[in-house]
Amino acid sequence: MDRRWLPLNALRAFEAAGRALSFTAAARQLRVAQSAISRHVIGLEDLLGVALFERRPQSLVLTEAGRKLLASVTQSYDRLDRTIDEIMATRGDRVRTLVLRLPPTFAARLAVPALSAFRALRPDLTLEIDTRPIDQATDRAADVAIVYGEVDSQDGPVTPLWQVRLTLLCHPTLAPAPDVPLGQFLAIHDVLHVRHEGRPRTYLWEMFVRRLGLEGVGLDRGLVFDTAAMAVDYALAGSGLALADPRLFATEIETGRLVCPFDLSVDDGYQYSLKVHPDDRADPDIATLAAWLVERFGDPRAASPLADPLERALAIQRRSGT
Questions:
Q1: What is the CA radius of gyration of the chain?
Q2: Overall average pLDDT of the 259-270 stretch
Q3: Cβ(30)–Cβ(16) under 8 Å?
Q4: Average of pLDDT values for 73-93?
């Protein structure tokens, strides 16, 4: 297509609608009428000869063509944003902003309390922290992402940080006597569930007891939470048994606010990894942030070799003692 005829306004309207999956929300974002968004998208669909959305009664759903186009348009806008930021930064008016996407519990328990150290290292960079769920069509909005997923099904190249080990955590007042078996302990307390990728609410607990060889433990009870952080916060109030990775709650364990009543843990097949788009790995600012995250949160036994730009940035940090 001749660039003179690129439908830029229609692409902008489509990108906003694709992100929000709503013409109404896109109209609010762009401060135009909803009919204008709809008209632009219909015109773009007519131009391409394919539907970009499935129109459902209460929602929009991207088609395969829509997902493909949204990823490309989002990436293009992101690059424009970064380039404009860099140009303006040379004027001294603005510093560069990097988007760091984090899982909510990782952000609250580990990353956010530590980010002041990175700010001291690179005060010229502004970080925008995003804990919203990753949409495969729009994850290019993040410059660096920490992702939680199954070890063997990570999307694209990643740098492992550590493999999750599920451990039973509770308030110290609930800790059992040394001779109380695990099955009996589970039977007399509420178990706290965390929603897990559309699986049954008992998924993690059932896997935990199965891996430990326990049978006949009733697990279909207790509260259900969206994140491990909320489940552990409930346990910190003195009620219920949480199942979580102790690395995320090291401070609470070290201060005695949480205890691991049984020296048992289970590998659930998931890990935390760092992800940087291949196109961005040579960017020195992104490489510095990524290397700092690996240095701060990575398990040396789990981390695989980094790509050259990240390894160089990490080596510079080590030499400088930061």
A1: 23
A2: 90
A3: yes
A4: 75
Q: What is d(CA 219, CA 17) in angstroms, rounded to the nearest whole number?
A: 41
Binned at pLDDT 50, 70 and 90, residue 316 comes out as very low
- Note if the pTM is more than 0.85: no
SS (H, E, C) the chain: CCHHHCCHHHHHHHHHHHHHCCHHHHHHHHCCCHHHHHHHHHHHHHHHCCCCEEEECCEEEECHHHHHHHHHHHHHHHHHHHHHHHHHHCCCCCCEEEEEECCHHHHHHHHHHHHHHHHHHCCCEEEEEECCCCCCCCHHHCCEEEEEEEHHHCCCCCEEEEEEEEEEEECHHHCCCCCCCHHHHHHCCCECEECCCCCCCCHHHHHHHHHCCCCCCCCCCCCEECCHHHHHHHHHCCCCEEEECHHHHHHHHHCCCCECCCCCEEEEEEEEEEECCHHHCCCHHHHHHHHHHHHHHCCCCCCCCCCHHHHHHHHHHHHHCC
Neighbours of 142 (CB within 10 A): 23
CB of 248 within 8 A of CB of 228? yes
